[in-house]
Specification:
- Residues about 1-15 and about 590-600 have low confidence and may be disordered.
- Helix content is about 65%, strand content about 10%.
- It is an alpha/beta fold and about 600 residues long.
- A 6-stranded mixed beta sheet has the order 6-9-10-3-11-12. A 4-stranded antiparallel beta sheet has the order 2-1-4-5, with no helix packed on it. It has a two-stranded antiparallel ribbon with strand order 7-8.
- The longest helix is centred in the first third of the chain and has 48 residues, at about 70-115.
- The protein has helices at about 10-25, 30-65, 70-115, 120-125, 130-170, 170-220, 220-225, 230-255, 260-280, 290-330, 390-395, 420-425, 440-445, 455-465, 470, 490-505, 520-535, 570-575, 580-590, 595-600; strands at about 350-355, 370-375, 380-385, 405-410, 415, 430, 440, 480, 510-515, 540-545, 555-560, 565-570.
- Helix 2 (about 30-65) packs antiparallel against helix 10, helix 6 packs antiparallel against helix 8 (about 230-255) and helix 6 (about 170-220) runs antiparallel to helix 9.
Length: about 600
């Protein structure tokens, strides 16, 4: 139906292959660095493998025989090989860091770019704190894991294979000791990794809770202090922090077994090789130089095995992060453009044809029930109703912030699902209940409505929204810097700036979702009068709690429990609609407000 995508993109169900394919696609321009890293690491490993073999030659053919020429030649060759190995290691480190940092950059960009395409339904699916964790902690885990994979996952296995091969060339009997140790340790590590994975999968969910606690506390710090709730917030944060700590401790308890197992194996191998090697040297089955080489290869194999275990730990941690990151990258918006969209909204007429809607697609118990409306272009429509009567849900369907569950919403005579989304939303300006301003100057915030707007156009929009009254009292006027969220403005000032910003879009439909609630009645009346005089061709929908804010509208919608209970002029509604008449009498006679009456009913 018009390109909508089913909800619930579960990456886990699509398997690890799909997840790895998603992540692999983000390597992009860093493929060359990703290929160069293992090449340099291979060079380093090969050089390190040759050095113990040459050392054995110096001892057996140089020191034992007193051949200084041989010592000089082979020693010089060792220095050359060591330099080549060093350069290989430096190259691997450099390109590995470049590839992993670039990979992390692309992951963050891919996630952020996809988040910008999310519909409100998609946004509802993820907590803000969860998205922050994915963009920071999870991506950092993947960056570290990718660097370990490029460097250590190549270096450690290759080094073990080379060392094992050289060991078998020198003395197969002693090499079998390594083989047994590797098999035993590998089995133990696999068991540990499987058992720790479940803890790492849960720990990032606890990180989300921790970030949520911090975010809410910082955002609402004025409320926290006003209600003296600092101690409560501290306890809440401590609980979230303790949960993260608890999960990590459980995982680390299992991982901590890795170190003693490795040390026991290393020392056991050294003892066995020293004992068996010494007997072979005495029996003339092994030279002193070869025994020294075997001990070196022993340490090489076992240290690389320990390094590999660290890689496994990092990969185990990052698997949970990989799924969380892939989920965001692969999340498909529930709202998409049709194949051949319309790119022109002819006018601001609006039609609701048997519309039902629920945020979860529930057709049995929708929050909007069989709504039918016809609004002419240029009309001013008031919308009034109690909290929870679905006023905001009704207007959210006009700009297609959500799709209807049943029925059709049309703007300009066409179903909103036939329009290009950007075209529709540029034609329908919405000032939401929650006013959001961004850090920057007043002019920069206003130009969210039209990035090419001149200063004169911004001043005119502010005049219509009665925002110029307070802006011109600031020393820097339109260049006044606003803190994040507009925290250095009052609620009414923020509302008027948001209205001015919406007007700069020059919309065919303007929706004010309770956007003058913090404005005094005199200013509210001036804003409405300016709208009537200056933008008569724009369809205006005004959601309000005050009768005075909507009584001069061409027609007024009365909503209750997701249904239209009345749609007429102020005068006719007073005569024919009991709900509206009750609201009017309560507000004009000082008997309370609509929500109190609704609560009693």
């Amino acid at each position: 139906m018009y390109g909508t995508v089913p909800k619930g993109n579960d990456i886990g169900k699509k398997g690890n292959t799909y997840m790895l394919k998603t992540l692999g696609a983000q390597i992009k321009e860093f493929k060359a660095a990703s290929i160069a890293t293992p090449i340099f690491m291979t060079i380093e490993v090969l050089m390190e493998t040759v050095i113990p073999f040459l050392m054995a030659s110096i001892i057996d053919d140089g020191v034992d025989k007193g051949d200084m020429h041989h010592i000089y030649v082979v020693g010089g060759l060792m220095i050359l090989i060591a330099v080549i190995g060093l350069l290989g290691g430096l190259g691997g480190a450099r390109y590995g860091a470049k590839a992993s940092a670039g990979f992390a950059k692309n992951l963050r960009e891919a996630m952020f770019a996809n988040i910008q395409t999310f519909s409100f339904a998609n946004i509802d699916k993820y907590a803000t704190s969860g998205l922050v964790t994915r963009l920071t902690t999870d991506v950092t885990n993947l960056q570290n894991a990718y660097q370990m994979i490029l460097r250590m996952c190549i270096r450690a296995p290759l080094s073990m294979i080379c060392a094992m091969t050289m060991s078998y060339i020198i003395c197969p009997r002693l090499a079998n000791v390594y083989l047994v140790a590797v098999v035993l340790l590998g089995t133990c590590l696999a068991i540990l990794m499987v058992r720790t994975h479940k803890y790492f999968s849960k720990v990032f969910e606890k990180y989300d809770d921790l970030n949520a606690s911090v975010q809410e506390n910082v955002t609402g710090i004025r409320v926290v202090k006003a209600f003296v709730r600092e101690d409560y917030e501290k306890k809440r944060f401590t609980t979230a922090s303790h949960n993260v700590y608890g999960m990590f401790v459980k995982a680390e308890k299992l991982i901590s077994l890795n170190a003693p197992m490795m040390q026991f194996t290393v020392y056991s191998c050294i003892l066995l090789i020293s004992w068996m090697g010494a007997r072979l040297v005495v029996a003339r089955g092994l030279t002193t130089g070869e025994l020294m080489s075997m001990l070196t290869y022993s340490m090489n194999i076992l240290m690389n095995l320990m390094m590999l275990s660290m890689v496994f730990v990092m990969i185990t941690m990052s698997m949970a992060s990989a799924r969380r990151v892939s989920e965001v990258i692969n999340e498909k918006s529930t709202l998409t453009n049709p194949e051949n969209p319309d790119y022109e909204v002819t006018d601001g007429s609006i039609c609701f044809d048997h519309v039902s809607f629920d945020y979860h697609g529930d057709k049995e118990n929708p929050i909007l029930k069989d709504v039918n409306l016809n609004i002419r272009s240029g009309e001013t429509i008031g919308i009034i109703g109690g909290t929870g009567s679905s006023k905001s849900s009704l207007v959210n369907l006009i700009s297609r912030l959500y799709d209807v569950t049943e029925g059709t919403v049309s703007v300009g005579g066409k179903d909103v699902r036939t329009y290009d989304l950007d075209t529709l939303r540029n034609s329908v300006a919405v000032v939401l209940q929650k006013n959001v301003l961004f850090s920057g100057t007043i002019l920069e915030n206003l130009r969210w409505g039209d990035e090419h707007a001149t200063e004169e156009e911004c001043r005119q929009a502010c005049h219509l929204a009665c925002a110029d009254e307070f802006i011109e009292r600031f020393p820097d006027q339109y260049n006044t810097f606003l803190e994040q969220g507009g925290s250095n403005l009052s609620g009414g000032q923020k509302q008027r700036l948001c209205i001015a910003r919406a007007l700069l879009k020059k919309p065919k439909v303007l929706i004010l979702d309770d956007s003058t609630s913090a404005v005094d009645t005199a200013t509210d009346a001036k804003i409405r009068r300016a709208f009537a005089q200056e933008i008569p061709g724009t369809t205006k929908l005004i959601i309000a709690q005050r009768i005075s804010s909507v009584q001069d509208a061409d027609r007024i919608i009365v909503m209750e429990d997701g249904q239209i209970q009345g749609f007429d002029t102020h005068e006719h509604l007073l005569e024919t609609n009991e709900i509206y008449r009750d609201i009017y009498e309560l507000q004009t006679k000082g008997g309370g407000d609509f929500d109190e009456k609704a609560g009693e009913n």
